[in-house]
Amino acid sequence: MAGFFRRLFGYGDTSAATAQSDGVQLLTPPSSGVIKPKPVTADTALQVSAVYACVKLLSETVGSLPLKVYDTVDGALEEDTTSRLSRILGSAPNGTDTPAEFKETMLLNLMTTGNAYARVVRNNRGELVAMEPLASCQVVVTVVGDSVVYEYVGADGSVTQIPNRQICHWRLMGNGVVGMNPIEYAAGTISNQLASEDFASRYFQAGAKPSGVLSTDMVMTDDQYGQVMGRFANLSDGTDNSHRTLVLEAGMKYQQVQLSPESMQLLESKRYNLEDIARFYGVPSILINDNTSTTNWGSGIEQIKLGWLSTGLAPLLNKIEQRLERTLIPTGQNKRIRFDVSSFLRADTAGMASYTTQLVANGIISRNEARGMIDLAPMSGADQLTAQINQAPVEQLNQEAGNTSDE
Predict the structure, then answer these.
(1) Which residue, among 165, 53, 182, 49, has the nearest Cα to 109 in the 3D structure?
(2) Distance between CA 284 and CA 280 in Å, rounded?
(3) DSSP for residue 72
(4) What distances in angstroms separate CA 159 from CA 89, 120, 155, 183, 291, one per listed residue?
């Protein structure tokens, strides 16, 4: 274990450590103890339905959550809807992407490589103009002294060095400079899934006929052997006539020697691989249409989603928020960037009703603010803060009790 961390952080004498001694940051495991029956890349991994579903779920979920900018006023957060930063994050991050598309692109890169990069474009006055996502596979991160250097490799092989201040770098857990590639670390499970899919394809391509042995008591000449092999070649070549009825002559017998998919536990293996991939991505398998087992998250899908929000999504969202604040907000400005997760609360209808009722009843928000949280139009006379009378200060209750006794 100690050796693993030494290689991950660039110490030791392995080839991986040699690369890091030159400052190049590695995203993949320095070594692997798992035999991979199939090579795994981002493209092949996304052909596995569980990987695709996890990446799609994370990308679209985060992409659908609005990013809002707030001013800190007397310790409270007030939403900023007019600044340049608010417009770029909430309406037009660049010349082509919508906010949802920008976040989806960043999350796709993040979940397939462990890192997502966006070029921060500013005008001559230093004002934010746009954020342009970069393909993670074309970015090389190098540590030079105490500085992190980003190089973008173009399609023509050209290399452009981008200053640290012009890069917004989202990363998964890693060595503090780059994030670890989840596909590479899950390569063993993904490779097994690819191998099982390949087996199933070949099996059905061959007419779903298992391999077997033809046996006879006769001693065949070379010509007879060639005739037999030619006649029964369709047992393995997957031709269209593989389902025809076979007639065996001269006491010849056929014996199956290959296990059936059921005997090889193909379905069970695929189900386990699905659950294992979901574990790598921190996604409840039920959210990617796995309904084969029970769950301890709760009796309903709303409770599962809320549990995933608090234990899975919240750390990721917090990491992205902090990186955006550090990259985009100049020192001295009391602004904050937050994801609006009210859509998750809205999914829990009972919880949302109780939540807004408590806020209104305790004078924390107005009725119109509560209506806005559930996408209802404001009403006249509903902008004042109200509170239940029985929650008056204790001193006032004592005064009222004294007035009652005097009467």
Answers:
(1) 182
(2) 10
(3) E
(4) 28, 18, 10, 26, 48
Q: Cα–Cα distance between 89 and 69 in angstroms, integer?
A: 8
d(CA 356, CA 166): 41
Distance CA 302, CA 345 (A): 9
Beta bridge partners of 338: 68
* DSSP for residue 210: P
pTM of the model: 0.71
Q: Say if residues 142 and 25 touch (Cβ distance below 8 Å).
A: yes
Pairing, β 335-339 against β 253-256: unpaired
- CA pair distance 276, 279, nearest whole angstrom: 5
**For residue 87, what pLDDT is reported?**
94
Closest CA to 173 of 64, 58, 34, 318: 318
Question: What are the tens digits of pLDDT across the range 95-119?
Answer: 999 999 999 999 999 999 999 999 9
Burial 111-143 (b: 16+ CB within 10 A, else e): bbbbbbbbbbeeeeeeebebbbbbebeebebbb
Q: What is the pLDDT of residue 117?
A: 96
Closest among 110, 115, 113 to 41, alpha carbons compared = 113
Rg (the chain; Cα; Å): 31
State which amino acid sits at residue 210. Answer: P
